[in-house]
Design a protein that fits this description.
single chain; alpha+beta; 5 strands
Length: 232
């Protein structure tokens, strides 16, 4: 088998893995950071914090105040043409490569994320700097969602599928991350560029690098542990 073909198969197999778990402790991070993450502002729009239901529309999710700056990444839209008025009861039509997409489960997941923001948590981070995005505008469609667990506990990276045509986080990304975080793990859900495995794997590599570099600022490790073991 030609070396190039064998490498491509390895890449496909690697990225087809739903969850990449790193059972290790990330290196300490420097306080210096050229990345400016989104800081949630006012978001409580009603007594139920603006919760969704199956009658809510795609546009309701995209424009929800809790998801300001990254609402387009909640559902698998990925720069495709979509009907903003479509109700979440038909959300499965946005994931043609997936089966058994349950609208009620999708809504429950979205509402959990709304509650996380309401509790003051930052759930989405950009990976690339503004300069990198200017040089390659497609990198604006990247980043990761963070579901925090306990300090010092191993972390996991969830890579949702979608045939490199869309990112199916709402079905096989966020639900897994939520359950793992409830067990104490710190979980990151990759938001990658569609259009091929090389782009997607490049974004995965960027996220892994970011996590190791900024472990301290992400605060999913015990500070004393970082100082004692890594001298930072």
């Amino acid at each position: 088998m030609p070396k190039e073909l064998r490498m491509n198969r390895q890449i496909r197999l690697f990225f087809s893995l739903l969850i990449v778990v790193f059972l290790c402790r990330p290196l300490g991070a420097s306080a210096a950071d050229d990345h400016v993450s989104y800081k949630p502002g006012a978001f409580i729009v009603s007594k139920n914090k603006g919760h969704m239901n199956t009658s809510s529309s795609v546009q309701d999710v995209v424009n929800h105040p809790s998801f300001k700056g990254f609402g387009q990444f909640i559902l698998p839209l990925d720069n495709r043409a979509y009907d903003g008025n479509m109700q979440l009861s038909r959300v499965g039509s946005l994931l043609p490569y997936h089966s058994y997409v349950e609208p009620e489960a999708v809504v429950e997941t979205i509402n959990y994320m709304i509650d996380q923001v309401a509790d003051g948590k930052v759930i989405f981070y950009n990976v690339y700097t503004e300069r990198q995005k200017q040089e390659n505008p497609a990198k604006r469609n990247t980043g990761f969602f963070f579901f925090k667990g306990k300090p010092g506990v191993p972390f996991a990276i969830v890579c949702p599928g979608g045939g490199f045509s869309y990112v199916g986080s709402v079905h096989e990304g966020f639900p897994h991350a939520i359950q793992l975080s409830k067990k104490g793990y710190n979980v990151f859900v990759l938001q990658y560029r569609v259009g091929g495995e090389q782009r997607a794997c490049g974004d995965l590599a960027a996220v892994i690098s970011y996590i190791f570099k900024h472990a301290g600022s992400l605060r999913f490790m015990n500070r004393n542990l970082i100082r004692n073991e890594f001298g930072t």
